Amino acid sequence: MTPLVAVIGAGFSGLAMARALQKRGQSYVVLEASAGLGGNWYDGVHEELRLVTSKESTQFPEFPFPNDVGYFPSGDDMLTYLNAYADACDLRSSIQTESRVTSIAPCPGGFLLHHARGVVEASEVVVANGHHWNCKYPAELGNYGGTLIHAKSFRDLELYNAKRVCVVGAGNAGVDAVVAASTRAKALAWSVREPTWILPKTIGSRSTVDWLQRPVPTRLQEWMLVRESERRFGSLEDHGLRLPVHRPFSRHPTLSDDVLPVVRRGLATAYPGPVRAEGKTIFFADGRSFEADLVLAATGYEVAFPFLPDGMVSFERNLPRLVLGSMVPRQRGLFVLGLGQPRSGAGSLLRPGAELLADFIALERSMGRCLADALAVFSPPSADSLLVDPRTLRVKIAVTRAILRGVRALYADSH
């Protein structure tokens, strides 16, 4: 089989992978399900959404955002940026759109990928389509009789107008929805299922995410952010929210300068998690209820690889067990990129991650054996949290490069 890397997905991760392969002269093809590139940003978001990361931390280091893009890019800014990146790097000619992968089967020398427009034979596969497509809904609202929309599908802010709205979820998508609905809805309930740290989006004139990149111990950063939030907004309990018992960075943090003031002004009322629904009435864990015309579920996503054979990737706690977060044990030529959710912008981490993965592919080809199993000696397979500490990841990439050099030297000496 002629060496060819098939990259699944032409979003942020897929484009980073394509560029890394291109720079190394490796043949590749990108299979994208949608009619255009951009991944989550091609699907679209509502017009008021802004990233919680600055454009400087979000961009690929070698390809800055234009000067006229705001400090926190919008969805349209992101889509325009990724298209411009693909054009500037001459990636578009290797991207096949409207080519949703339906199945992948091992074959001699690699894999057969069946997609909407045909079949591709590839020596390696990089799954880079993320997980922001496999929506989770609150099971407690299975009998809800009104309109239920997942945050992934929400585009039209006018749907909030003059309606009784309930937003379920307190992640970044959830707080964005609460803020957007607060000036439009007739009445607004915010259901927070688990106690969540709500931290400032900005520190002074800087993005909190950028501020976190300073060489300050994590526990001190956590303490400083909680104190800053209390100084600016008061305690979470002052807003009818339960105080979390977990450390702020042990889970993905929620960043917002606006949602707590919205609650403080009475534009939204905080409730605990829902326990059931009858018609349009939602009942909550504390015994209160709220009649909602519209429920927006900002309840996250599940990782899944529906195109892979059952059992090819094993899961633990609903997360895939991978070597170094990117290689599938006992599966030569199968890799994953971009599942992590870093406390930073994506571009500065995706580039070195994709380049390291391209080096994995080259070394595995030269060895003729599964590199994941060789590296598992140093880093056993695990189902890590999707939450990524950017400083830790940079160190991990540097250490992995050193291990890779050692494996390459040992292989060369033995041959």
Q: How would you describe what is shown here?
A:
The structure is a single chain. The protein is of the alpha/beta class and 415 residues long. Helix content is 29%, strand content 20%. The protein contains eleven helices and 24 strands. A five-stranded parallel β-sheet has the order 3-2-1-7-22, with helices on one face. Strand 20 (315-316) and strand 21 (319-320) form a beta hairpin. Helix 1 (12-23) packs across helix 9 (347-367) and helix 9 (347-367) packs parallel to helix 11 (390-414). It is globular. The two termini are 23 Å apart. The mean pLDDT is 92.
Radius of gyration: 22 Å
- The shape is globular
Q: Percent helix among the residues? A: 25-40%
Largest sheet: 5 strands, parallel
C-alpha end-to-end distance: 23 Å
Record field, number of beta strands: 24
Note the beta-strand portion.
15-25%
Average pLDDT works out at: 92
Low-confidence sequence ranges: none
Q: What is the strand arrangement across the widest sheet?
A: 3-2-1-7-22
- Structural class computed from helices and strand pairing: alpha/beta
**How many helices?**
11
Short summary of the structure?
Helix 1 packs across helix 9 and helix 9 (347-367) packs parallel to helix 11 (390-414). The chain is globular and about 70 Å long. 29% of the residues lie in helices and 20% in strands.
